[in-house]
Design brief:
By secondary structure, the protein is α+β, with helices and mostly antiparallel strands. It folds into three domains: 176 residues, no CATH class; 65 residues, no CATH class; 69 residues, no CATH class. The chain has nine helices and eleven strands. The protein has a six-stranded antiparallel sheet with strand order 3-2-1-4-5-6, covered by helices on one side. The chain has a five-stranded antiparallel sheet with strand order 8-7-9-10-11, covered by helices on one side. Helix 5 packs antiparallel against helix 6.
């Protein structure tokens, strides 16, 4: 094993490094196991045979080597795979965990997995599940990671050794992943999801919301007409995140800030939201998973249905989803409210956007 490293805090660099190292180690151990099993069965060219088979089925196949853990997870969850009967722990529970872990790795490689301790705990638990009973070294690491991250989140972990762990003890995270994550983190910092903490200086332009007139003023003069056809949607958003005293501070680019429970928060835009007409998925994916079933979005873990767990009617959102996707479709959502169907190849596309009022209570910021 390249390393057996545990986090001591919320360091983004450490979390990225640990997730990358877990993927490398699990891929190497599974690959060695499969290689020995296939060779013993007289099939040393198993990886190339799988590649040719997938391409003959007109399926995309971008994996470059047999130790790519995404390839192993993907192939191991297919009913027509030659892995059947060879994987060390290929039960129905394993398939479920493998599919969930594969989604997390795709999010990681697309800079959509928020690099925090909560997600590291989830990832560690999934690695423990998919390697259970294998005797692989990565299983011990995954179990230790799960315990450590849980202790950090519970506030029960007390560092006993503050000496830094040499970076050389971990496989180096590919520069592309680091650069893309830096860009994603900076984008969120500059203009965070609605309801999230505002970063930077307080804007100069001050406007005021009035709950009685449901209008917007600047120095006592109504200014909502400046919004044109966006007036109703912009005001609805600002009233949803109603700031202290109704005071709204607007930056030159239109980003709007207000104080909520003493904290400066992003509450909307004075005008069109950037990328309203784009299908790009912004931000980090929420850890919760969803299915679209019988015209409903269902929280997989809790079983809650969207229509019965919102503060505002979600009828229009559910209708939009029903026209965009098929039944029994898996869904993800980011902290920006961007809803998408997870993909195994390429980048996902936004199919709808939700705000905190029409999404499950307490799951989106604010």
């Amino acid at each position: 094993m390249n390393a057996f490293r545990l986090p001591v805090d919320e360091s983004v660099v450490d979390i990225l490094g640990i997730i990358h190292a877990l993927e490398m180690e699990a891929g190497a151990e599974f690959s060695d196991y499969l290689d020995e099993a296939f060779k013993a069965d007289g099939n040393p060219e198993w990886f190339e045979e799988i590649r040719h088979y997938r391409k003959s089925m007109n399926e995309p196949f971008t994996y470059r080597n047999q130790s790519d853990f995404r390839f192993i997870l993907s192939e191991g969850t297919r009913e027509d795979s030659s892995f059947s009967g060879i994987m060390p722990n290929n039960s129905a529970k394993w398939v479920t965990s493998a599919k969930r872990l594969l989604d997390k790795l795709h999010h990681f490689h697309h800079s959509q997995l928020k690099p925090d301790v909560q997600n590291l705990r989830i990832v560690a638990g999934l690695y423990a599940d998919v390697t259970a009973g294998t005797g692989f070294e990565v299983t011990n690491w995954a179990n230790a990671l799960f315990s450590r991250t849980k202790a950090i989140l519970d506030g029960t972990y007390v560092p006993t050794d503050t000496a830094p762990v040499p970076v050389a003890s971990m496989p180096e995270v590919p520069a592309q992943i680091v650069e893309e994550y830096q860009g994603a983190i900076e984008e969120v910092r500059q203009r965070p999801p609605l309801g999230s903490r505002w970063e930077g200086q307080k804007p100069v332009r001050k406007l005021s919301l009035n709950r009685q007139t449901r209008d917007l003023y600047e120095d006592g003069v109504p200014v909502s007409d400046e919004l044109g056809g966006l007036r109703e949607s912009v005001l609805a958003t600002w009233f949803r995140y109603f700031p202290l005293g109704g005071e709204v501070w607007v930056d030159p680019d239109g980003a709007a800030m207000g104080y909520i429970k003493g904290d400066a928060r992003m509450i909307g835009w004075f005008g069109q939201t950037p990328e309203d007409n784009s299908d790009r998925v912004r931000g980090f994916v929420l850890p919760t998973e969803y299915n679209f079933e019988n015209g409903e979005v269902v929280d997989v873990e809790s079983g809650l249905k969207l229509s019965s767990n919102t503060t505002e009617p979600a009828k229009d959102l559910l209708h939009a989803l029903s026209t965009a996707i098929d039944e029994s479709t898996k869904l993800n959502i980011t902290d920006y409210g961007d809803i998408f169907v997870p993909v195994t190849e390429g980048k996902p596309k936004r199919i709808a956007n939700a705000h905190k009022g029409i999404w499950f209570k307490g799951q989106l910021p604010g």
